[in-house]
Amino acid sequence: MAILSPVISSLWMPCFQECRAVGGCHNTGGGRGNKVYYIQTSSTIWEELQVTSNTITMSLSEAVIRKAGNGLALSKIKSLDLSDKNLTTLDPKIMNQLVTLQSLDLSNNNISSIPTDICLPSLTTFDISDNSISSLSFGQKFPKLASLYIAGNHDLGKADRLIAIVENSSLTQIDDQRASSLLQVVRQIRSKFEIQVKAKWEVLFAEPYATGIPDDEVDQVTDEFLDCLRKDNLFKNADSKFEKYMLEKLAKEMVQSAKNLSIYNSTHSLPGTPRSARLNDLQSPETTPVRQSSRTPVPNKRLIDTPTDKPPTPKNVVPASTQDSERTPKKEGRGQKRRRDSSPGSPSKPSSKSYRTETGHMSSPKFSHRSPASATKTQNKGKKRRRSSTPESECKQKAKSYRTETGQLSSPKYTALNNPRIDHLAPVPDYDPTYFVRCHSDEDSPSDDNTKVWRCAFEPKPNNPSEHTNVVATVGGKIVCLVDCQTGKVMRRFKDTDKKESFYTLAWTTIHLDEENSTETTNILAVAGDACDVKLIHPSQLVMYATLEGHRRYISCLAFHPSYPTILFSGGKDNRIIMWDIGIPDLSDYSTNFRKLKCLVTPGTDPLNLAISLSTNSLLAGCENTCYLWKLKDMNKLNKEPDLELSLPITDDKSDSASDDSNSSDIVDGLVMLSDNYVVTKCVGNSCLTMFDLKSSIPKKLQGRRTRSVKVTPTALLNYTRTTVDYIYLAASQGLVAAGDDKGSIHLYNLDELVAEKAKSCDTVLQQSRVLDWPEISLGRYTDSMKELVTEKGVVINSIAVNHSRDYLVCGTDNNLVCIWKRSSVNV
Predict the structure, then answer these.
(1) CA 192 → CA 394, 494, 509, distances in Å?
(2) Compositional bias (Low complexity) spans (predicted)?
(3) pLDDT reading at 91 higher than 50
(4) Domain limits for position 21
(5) pLDDT tens, position by position, 235-270
(6) How many CB atoms lie within 10 A of CB 354?
(7) Is residue 123 part of a domain?
(8) What is the CA radius of gyration of the chain?
(9) Rounded to whole angstroms, how far apart are CA atoms 218 and 20?
């Protein structure tokens, strides 16, 4: 209730008459802008007013606060109710005296802003509802604020609530909304921009400010950096108030961290210095039936690189070479078999499934009987290496029996190939090691040799997905990297915040952004692992925009359908393959609609590799103890269980091997499709790879819903090396097949002629076209942090990627390296 000057227009007269009824009017000169002093009655205390044309303003006085605080001194007031006082401004000098104030109610006033120089160190509850406040940027001045009430301020939206959460970490609720739900949104938006902001800084600003930023240049650098960010395509889509706020906040944080050099930790070299360790190489040519890398490499090959933005200058480069030497075992623990799961395994239970054989009769899989000595020996030797560093678990032992044409049971199910003869495949060019990059360290440490780089795959060209760019994606630990093979630069790097995550697999797809306008395309990268869900990443901005949840245990393999680029298959430890439609994302806000279409079952085993054959319209799954196939003629009516089980041939007698696992089932850890109908598989412990014609292996008629077992006739056997390490994956590119091993070597097979001749059946063992040996390494100034690369020879090549032109081979290793090999310009 206010006393008004009588010169104010009649609009205010009802209020004036009401005031007269209360206590009368004392006018001291009535013009607009003049002061009208309050009168005091027994029930009301009137504030000094400033009268303007259409506005009544009221300033807060110390007397009003004392009155509302029951006469206590300002420094002793703990709770203060100043609601409905028609307040418009707050005096920081008065408010800052409320040092013990815990609860403040300013609701139902006309306050437009909270001065940023007001500091209330003890305030826990703040009610500013029903005012005209447009900003909540005052939160840092109230360090203990837990409850904030802002309803009725029409200029405040969701973005302001998010800003308040960021500004004041002690907030637990805003109005009736818990802070936890808002924090989740904050984390998502922050992660959306944080990596890109850091990458932008490292590329454009890190080198000029490698030694820090002077105090008088901080503001200028911040403005320049922000201007650079706003011109980026991703940040042009930062339309919301909070996204712009977060972008500015991250930019300021980055500048401050560069100012005090905290952006660079002790394990990294500063920008502007060479980050490469090099290879030294002395080659002694060998005359063997297999072509070896015998050419003397040219100087200036850059080999061991941590993530960098500029390739090293030639003056810092050391020549590289390759040496054929006797391989020595790695340190204890490496070279053993491993598993992905983190708990010791146990022998699997016999499957109760029945399978239809060639004759149409049903048979049940059974375990073959062994003597106790044989069983003990197998258990001791049949251990697989783990995905993590925990002790090895026991391998599943599962030997199946199948009914032969005579009706008798035979075990094991495969047929051995006898009396093979040696021959050669067509040659392939030599490859030179160019960059060995260690970029998957969880703590960014160059000494981390425990993280395993599990998979790598080249990015397809958006305008022609059948060809590749020079960028390869790699996964290992919590990190996804995009590496440029031409320069060795880590172009982008995504680190997952989920403590459970460790990536095992990835897959690329190229999708049309507009179904009606098919000219605009973009690449999407799917990654998955220990967290049991599939994450979709837009690689050009490195934004993880969707999470596909459906598996119960870790995911081992991913594959997109070549003809339907939004159809994704994911295979996991839960013995399931899930078919997804990932949808088409809206790149303005990364919203998308994805669906789980079908769940397929791999009976009694988990899939390790997936491949899709267009010529036979089928899905293949290489599993822990077999190979399954589903027909994809009608993907809406897929059988849950596989249509076929492919019985691969045993390529050698394992009875004399160290593991004595002749009765154990094969782990199909390698499976790739060649052009037309041909498939190449790799089984753990076999000394040969198997190439076969898939189309001729599929019966013309598939009857019933039960899985039918068929024997595979090999087109060719490819000489390999017997290894006890599992999860060594194959790669293929237009007839070139590549396979790593547990000694750091890469085996190359040129199968173009076999594919062109459409060979039908052959039990000949064909020698490799070329073997690339692990090079000798000289580390220079990285000797202390990466000395294991020199002392350890038994490097496991987990996976390989080959680009469409065969110019580059990229492999991921067990000791945290991404190794880039380039086709030699000199024919050898």
Answers:
(1) 41, 10, 21
(2) 343-354
(3) yes
(4) 1-58
(5) 666 667 888 888 888 888 888 888 877 665 433 333
(6) 12
(7) no
(8) 35
(9) 60
Residue 414: pLDDT above 70? no
Residue 70 lies in a domain: no
Ordered DSSP codes for 437-500? E----TT--TT-------EEEEEEETTEEEEEEEEEEEEETTEEEEEETTT--EEEEEE---TT
- Where does a domain end: 225, 259, 293? 259
Q: Which residues of 46-82 are buried (b: 16+ CB within 10 A; e: fewer)?
A: bbebebeeeebebebeeebbeebbeeeebeebeebeb
63 has pLDDT over 60? yes
Q: Distance between CA 137 and CA 651 in Å, rounded?
A: 71
Q: Which helix (H) or strand (E) holds 187?
A: helix 179-204
CATH number assigned to the domain comprising residue 495: 2.130.10.10
Most confident stretch, 224-233, 310-319, 785-794: 224-233
SS3 82: coil
Please calculate the CA angle 458-497-248 and round it to the nearest 5 degrees: 95
Tell me if the bond preceding 350 is cis, omega within 30° of 0: no
Total number of domains constituting the chain: 3
Q: 509 pLDDT exceeds 90?
A: yes
Do the strands 79-81 and 103-105 form a parallel or antiparallel pair, or are they unpaired? parallel
Residue 580's φ and ψ, nearest 5 degrees, are: -115, 155
Kind plus residue range of the DSSP H or E element containing 228: helix 218-230
Using CA of residue 418, residue 420, residue 425, residue 431, what is the dihedral sign? positive
Asked whether residue 493 carries a pLDDT value surpassing 60, the answer given is yes
Nearest to 691 by CA among 737, 645, 727: 737
For residue 5, pLDDT beyond 60 = no
Q: Residue 455: what pLDDT?
A: 97
Last residue of a domain, one of 244, 259, 274: 259
Q: Helices H, strands E: what count in the chain?
A: 12, 49
Cα 178 from Cα 190, distance rounded (Å): 19
Q: 410: how many CB neighbours lie within 10 A of its CB?
A: 13
Q: Which of 582-591, 659-668, 751-760 is predicted least confidently?
A: 659-668
Residue at 113 is within a domain:
no
Rounded CA-CA distance 460/524 in Å is: 10
Amino acid symbol at 815: N
Q: How does the average pLDDT of the chain come out, rounded?
A: 73
The full DSSP string for 610-640 is EEEETTTTEEEEEESS-EEEEE-SSGGG--S
Verify that 430 and 568 share a domain, yes or no. yes
Does some domain include residue 785? yes
Query: In this prediction, what percent of the chain has a pLDDT beyond 70?
Result: 67
pLDDT digits (tens, 9 = 90+) for 157-177: 888 889 898 888 899 999 988
CA distance 797 to 454: 9
Q: Do the beta carbons of residue 504 and residue 510 sit within 8 Å?
A: no
